[in-house]
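Good day; I would like, with your permission, to put a structural problem before you. What I wish to show you is a protein chain and, alongside it, a tokenised description of its three-dimensional fold. Thank you for your consideration; the sequence and its tokens are set out here:
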Amino acid sequence: MSNTPPPLNAPSEDVLRRLAEVVGAAHALTDPAMQRPYLVEWRDKYVGKTPVVLRPGSTDEVSRILGIANEARVGVVPQSGNTGLVGGQIPHETGTEIVVSLSRLKAVRAVDGAGQSMTVEAGVTLAEVRDRAARAGRIFPLSLASEGSCQIGGNLATNAGGVGVLAFGTARDLVLGLEVVLADGRVWDGLRTLKKDNTGYDLRHLFIGSEGTLGIITAAVLKLYPRPADVVTAMLAVTSLDQAREVFRSLQARFGPSLTAFEFIPAIAMEFVTRHVAGTRQPFAATHSWYVLIDVSYPLADAGTVTAVEDALTQSMAEGFVIDATVARSGEQARALWRLREEISDAQKFEGGSIKHDVSVPVPLIAEFVARADAIVERLIPGARPVPFGHFGDGNIHYNVSQPKGSDKSAFLARWEELSHAVHGLVGALGGSISAEHGIGRMKRDELLRFKGAVELDMMRAIKRTLDPRGILNPGKLL
């Protein structure tokens, strides 16, 4: 059997009319100005075209849309908050695919604090989920810099990671059940709140991380966790990533699962943020090569929690691993420290073009990866400025590269594929992954063939053929 489905069709006028009738004229966007927010990736790397952006208001409407599209063999691009970084949510430039935005599916269907679960629709923003969990005395630990605009459907479709992976895992680990509309319009109701259900294949994991290529997630049951009584935030200065690794080992041994965040930041990223983001400032009097941002979360309130963190950092300083440290004394100070980390991506825009990589390597190899990747960058694009930062505790490195000072932005960005090919080769050599949390989308689809074995690819394609035999769901993405 061929792995390639028959070519897709451009939607006819009759198909477009039927689709518009499903959502109503006000939610079938054909005006280019109204469509634009749905067609442009936030870095402007991908700009697509579509005959219509559909904004369904219910699972039933999503079902009817897919039924029509599947019958007509028309491509469908699902989209949530349009914060993706690999082009998976943007239609191709052919203008033959329809966009289905889940942004109107905003209902929080249930919050069960005692049962530690929440049922939400795909268009609910991550920030609202976290807020509603807090109001119930719980936390939803997925945390991203884009949480004010990213939506749960997209978070799950890309298996988002964020700063809480160290303690709580990725989005995949935070889901109890799903509601999914299949390619032919059928609805799978898997909205179960059970912690244990051993009745066959766990189908939810087919759709989490599938980037909308197997079905459209319309709702999910999310896991909630007890809210910690105290969270201690601190910023540390170290001279190398090897030292950061030793501090990580020491703090993890001391605090175990209470060490809920361990982020690393290079001097250049701190420089970018404090230069371009109003209201930020360097955390120490002196500039240091590397910074580490940590959270230690305690289940019970105790006056000695800050002291315990200070004692641990004092020990690391005595051992020569930490040069300087500051511990937040208030929520405002903690937010100020976290802002230095969260603004890194936006601050890079002011420094010109940025070639971005979302990779992971084994934690013991982070320092080696960064050193060798920096050498690759200097060899290929002398003067380019690596900005590696991210989630040290799970090995996820956002290995971004800013253009050389005074260089041409377009010429620099034209080297994206060449540089990424080399960086990804190093990642593969170190036993890592070319996509830690952003997905494959359009950007890494061809690169995936370098790192997935033939058997694994055959299994993935077999799943795709089974669930989407006409190939209408997010065509040309992932596979």
About this structure: The chain is about 35% helix and 20% strand. Residues 241-255 form the longest helix (15 residues). Residues 352-435 form a domain with the Alpha-Beta Plaits fold (CATH 3.30.70.2740).
